[in-house]
Amino acid sequence: MKNLFLLAVLCLLTASLYGQSAPSPSRISIQGRSVDTSAAPLASSTIMLLSPKDSSLVNFMRADEKGSFTFKNIKSGTYILKISFVGYIPYNLVVKPTGDAVIDLGELVLKPITKELMEVVVRTAKAPLTIKGDTIEYNASSFKVPPGSTVEDLLRKLPGVQVDQDGNIRAQGQTVEKVTVDGKSFFGRDPKLATKNLQAESISKVQVYNDKTEQSKLTGVEDGKKEKTVNLELKEEFKKGGFGKVTAGAGPASNDLPARAEVKGNYNKFDSKQQFSVIGLGNNTNQQGLSFNDYQDFRGSNSFNWNDNADFGFSGSGRGFYFGGDDDESLGIPINGGGGRGFSNNAAGGANYNYDTKKTKLSTSYYYNQSRIEINALRNRENFLQTGSFLTEEASNQINFNGNHRVSLRYEKALDSMQTLIIINNTRLNNGNAFLFRRQALSRSDGIPPAGTLPDYTPSTLDSSTNQSDSRQFGSASTVLYRLKFKKKSRSFAASATYQINTNDGNLDLNSQTRFFQATSANEALRVIRQAQTTNSLRNEYKASLLYVEPFAKKFFWETFYNFSLRYDEVDRDVLNVGDAFPIRNDSLSRFYKNEYLFNRVGSGLRYSFKGLNLSAGLAGQRFSLNGRYAPDQTSPVDSLISRTFTTVVPNVSLNYDMKNNKYLYGGYDVNVRIPSSRDLQPIINNSNPLFINEGNPNLLPELQHNVNGGFSYFNPGSFTNLFVNVYGTYYVNQIVYSQQVNTETLVTTTFPENITGGKNIGSYMSVGFPLKKTKATLNINSQLNFGNNLTNINGTRNETENRNYTIGTRLDLTPTEWLTFYGNASIGRTNTRYSISSGQNQQITNNNFNGDLNLKLPGSFYVNTSLNYRVFRNRQSNFDQRIPLWNASVYHILGKAKKAEIRLSSVDLLNRNVSITQYAGQNYRQNEQVNTLARYFLLSFSYNMRGVNATIRRNGGF
Amino acid sequence: MNRFINLFLFALIATTSLGQKTEGVVSYERRTSWVKIIGRMSFLSQEEKDRAAQTWKNDSEYKEKMKLVFNANESFYSYASEQGETEDGNYSWRNSELKLYRNFEKDKKTEMIEMLGKTYIVDDSLHTPVWKIGNQIKDIAGYICMRADTEDPIRKQKITAWFAQDIPVPAGPERYNGLPGVIMELSLNDGDVVIEATGVTFRPVTADELKMPKLKGKKIDDTAYDAIIRQHIADSMIAHRNPYWSIRY
Q1: Neighbours of A556 (CB within 10 A)
Q2: Which domain range does residue A727 map to?
Q3: Which of B17, B20, B131 sits opposite A56 (nearest CB)?
Q4: Which of A177, A190, A417, A544 could hold A227 in an S-S bridge, CB 3.0 to 4.6 Å?
Q5: Quick count: other Cβ atoms within 10 Å of Cβ A184?
Q6: CATH of the domain at B147
Q7: Is B14 inside a domain boundary?
């Protein structure tokens, strides 16, 4: 180990050459010869002149074949002359001016680096060791140890360090008395504790030095003794960390509502491989889900997972087929349920654990959330028929409770350098109950009134009903995904299998009284329903997919895929009429139903990919077969058999072009296939609203959506200017639409899904953004157009509804100073709706929205935020005009030097005007809905954030 | 083992003395750690930085392959292949324009750099940075390299270069050069970005390999280039956006 010190001494010690002082020439030459210990010339050795002040490089050259060098005509002064030659210790010499014009240094002898040290240098990739004073610093990553090794194994590899069988450490021949980690000796006095327990890969540097004894540190009396000490520096990312935050707030009762409160918190503990986090929230301020940031903190490295889609299809255009939306009660953790309607009490909490290494990644989580929501709504709907229209005025009170347990697991393993296996499971268990009281008054107007006048309505029907229900749902989806790479670049294979199960067991007690004012007989004037309905449904789905990609001709890829899916549905529904006497089974509403939906698809396509231009085209053939049967009961003979097959070929074309200077062009044509949802297929009559009955249709075929889209985008990050243009169009074949049958006597509406071809939708979106004054004011203008034609059958007559929607919007960001920002936006939307069935009833709906958000930073860590939102809802035809201003404001103060705590006073809806409004015109009706919603309240809250509270008043522009 | 090392040493010394290694191609891997760069954004809170680090820890590193063609007087640095692609080669994209030519004899450089939605032609003398030479040595791709340090005053970055003692050409990757040997590794700001040589091939290079393509773009000099970068970084920091999404780190 002497050699090490030799190197240290030689590197740092620089010989000096002193000369006489004499009047110096301003320009000098320095010459010499670099030789080895046997006086042989070191040809082409590197000769450098450095400034003695900071070692900066002034000049350099190569020695000639004889090892000679001359720096000619250089400024007179002191230099460090450095000679380096592979295999030799760098040579340093301080050259001071001698007064002569030429300084001849003569032969400069370089010493070879000893074998042992050379081995260290040659064997390792990173700078293996540095010597600073009496400290030798080893770069841990230069010394390769097998994964899972301890620090002890690492120390064994270090030149100059020995570890004996018992784990005792000697460095430079002396026993190591102390091991510290990041300078702290929290492992106690036994150095072995640290070296045997710490993982080698968590260490970035090992430093060996002589430290004062604890005794002399304590007493301050130098006892002259030094202890050999090893300090282990942890890698930045291996530093264990923990962070968390908690917020709690409360406010007084207002608006006849009890006091408001909210609390939420999370804690996160991590090291380089693992992350454990817990989160919890509770409130009665309508915050149902996690914010996106909180979700990211909770899920960590598992927040996003690309490549988890197990349904392979054409590249670049999604998966191309999907099952109807309403079946998929989300298995994922709900995000951002803030500002909801009605009045809700919410609680949620969960834990997440991630383990990530290069080869293995594991993530598991459990999350529970529950909400109790009270919704008091007023709805006003007008339905248009060939012969006139009828009005529905509805008032309802509803209390829903929902509790969900969610468990998730994701495991990814690199089996070897070519194979990857991913296993995913998401499971949800739900428990819910609901109580609904509803009162509906229907009135009719026959004939169409002259333009500009309101029709006369005659009361027709009055219904009041209650629904009391409870349900238990279970859903679970498990996927295995296997990917294989080949030696040939770009060739790849993937296979997946998925099993999904959903069960839903529900009970509904339905009580309803309906009066029909135009009934001709007393018998028909009053209808009373008292039913107990039990519906148990089961859905199983088996899916498998294969994908193979073969590259050819360098820029082309040939992609082939196969999808298989089998969905099995079973519904058992028993409806009992509960009268004064014994319950009697209702055979027309009870049903037992079984159905199999089989889907097979084979597709193949070509893709061209080169320098940002991606072009692809392909074809897929698909076949659906539907086999079902239903009867009033399991035991009864089969009533109806369904057997249908449907085959189609769908094309796919796409273009993606990434042009120079941040311009992108894209476009494509594809056909999406939407398989009917289980609910739409089930031949079940849902009479929970006796005036509005839903029926399933077991004969439904899949819907085909022919989509065309194209667009262009440009972004100039230098001037912060951007432009987006997008146009799209869809044509529907076998569109699943809800047709209506309205009983002209009773005005009871029955809707049922049907396949209708011919619906279409086209639209465009455009946006331009540019700075008015760079970094201070930015303006954005956007416009949106959407024209839709929707077909439905109303009482057997084809009705075409034409919707034309025009929206223009603008956004202004003012960020003039560090202490003031303003963000404003406005949008003006107009929808014109025409009904072919009733041409006099054209609707014109206006939805305008204006928003301003002002942030102020005051002296003394005080901040103010206030926002005003003004919404306008208008429909001239129905004399509907609502304007809702919402004014929120909060003041907060960041406490302490560490800025970890915040106290905040917030007021929500200062004007006490909040109400949730929606309005819609489509199909053969127009509707508006008002839901009472949590209005003015105040909250005083306190937050503590271990990482510090961030009080930036400027929005981030992406990082 | 010792014998092997002896042999190795001998071989190394023998090759250096045998011929001048002044012509060839260096292949580099350029690794960008976005999490580290995000950690440098002064407008982000510790919470946001930690969040990014935890969320992206499995895919925080972006790799690209670069190459440096050199002879005794000239060098040309650009992407190793004509397009960027994923490791499995299944997806590809266009690389932003980046072609850096240097002539050490004439003290001249010509660069074609696409950034901020424009293509610039930087035409100027070399403006070699002031390098500080250290005492550390290490082996990169089989070459013993010495350490040199400098800093980028515009981006405020610490730059560490490792240059080969026995490839006597003052060329290097990215916009760095001017050391007594070819720069084999460049570390920007303690490893935010590392450009590391994966191999060197010595062979005669043709004039075509060192030639700049037809120059299309806005002509500027180093002063203007620095001014654009400085302005963009300052604007982006004020606007709370990461400047390095649209300029090279």
Answers
A1: 16
A2: 305-338+354-369+411-446+460-758
A3: B131
A4: A177
A5: 8
A6: 2.50.20
A7: no
Both tokens assigned to B135: 């005492």
Task: Provide, as residue numbers in chain A, all residues whose Cβ is less than 8 Å from the Cβ of B56.
Answer: 301
Strand, helix or coil for residue A67 = coil
Window A:567-586, CB contacts with B under 8 Å: none
Distance CA B9, CA A953 (A): 62
Query: Which residues 6+ apart lie within 8 Å of A132 measured at CB?
Result: none
Give the chain A residue whose CA is nearest to the CA of B149.
Answer: A56
CB within 8 Å: A118 and B132? no
| Residue B7: inside a domain | no
Alpha-carbon gap, residue A233 to A182, rounded angstroms: 5
CATH number at residue A84: 2.60.40.10
Chain A, window 158-187: residues with a beta carbon less than 8 angstroms from a chain B beta carbon: none
CB A318 within 8 Å of CB A415: no
- CB spacing of A489 vs B92 below 8 angstroms: no
Does the distance separating the beta carbons of A293 and B5 come in below 8 Å? no
Does A938 reside within a domain?
A: no
Taking CB atoms and an 8 Å cutoff, what residues of chain A touch B20? 44
Question: Tokens 């202490």 map to which residue?
Answer: A819
Dihedral of alpha carbons B238, B241, B245, B246, sign? negative
Instruction: Return the number of CB contacts < 8 Å for A and B.
Output: 222
Q: What are phi and psi of A715, to 5 degrees?
A: -140, 125
- Closest-CA residue in chain A for B46? A947
Quick check: B54 and A301 CB within 8 A?
A: yes
B10, part of any domain: no
Q: Over the stretch A582-636, which tens digit does the pLDDT of each residue have?
A: 888 988 899 999 999 999 999 999 998 888 888 999 999 999 999 988 888 777 7
How many residues in chain A?
A: 959
Q: What is the pLDDT of residue A423?
A: 95
Number of domains in chain B: 1
- Interchain proximity A297–B54, CB inside 8 Å: yes
Same domain, A55 and A104: yes
Domain of B104, in residue numbers? 22-245
Q: Which of B78, B74, B151 is nearest to B109 (CA)?
A: B74
Task: Please check whether residue A57 lies inside any domain of the structure.
Answer: yes
CB contact under 8 A, B116 and A958: no
What are phi and psi for residue A635, nearest 5 degrees? -85, -20
Considering only CB atoms, B134 lies closest to which of A55, A142, A662, namely A55
* Interface probe, candidates A14, A65, A86, A363, chain B, greatest B C-beta count within 10 A: A86
- Under the banding of pLDDT at 50, 70 and 90, the label for residue A518 is confident
**Closest Cα in chain B, distance from residue A656 (Å):** 10
Strand ranges in chain B using DSSP code E only, listed in sequence order:
24-33, 61-70, 74-79, 84-85, 92-93, 98-103, 108-115, 118-124, 132-140, 143-152, 157-164, 183-188, 193-202, 218-220
User: Averaged over A64-92, what is the pLDDT?
Assistant: 87
In a domain, A494, yes or no: yes
Domain count, chain A: 3
Chosen from A111, A296, A959 to mutate, greatest number of chain B CBs within 10 A:
A959
Q: Which residues of A259-276 are buried (b: 16+ CB within 10 A; e: fewer)?
A: ebbbebbbbbebbbbebb
Q: Search chain A and give the residue with CA nearest B81.
A: A611
Asked if the Cβ–Cβ distance from B131 to A57 is below 8 Å, we say yes
Within 10 angstroms of residue B239's Cβ, the number of other Cβ atoms is: 22
| Cα A667 to Cα A644: distance, rounded to the nearest angstrom | 35
pLDDT above 50 (res A694): yes
Query: Is residue B104 a part of any domain in this protein?
Result: yes
Residue A82 contacts B where some CB pair is shorter than 8 Å: yes
Decide if A839 is inside a domain.
no
Q: Give tens-digit pLDDT for A759-809.
A: 999 999 999 999 998 888 999 999 999 999 999 999 989 999 999 999 999
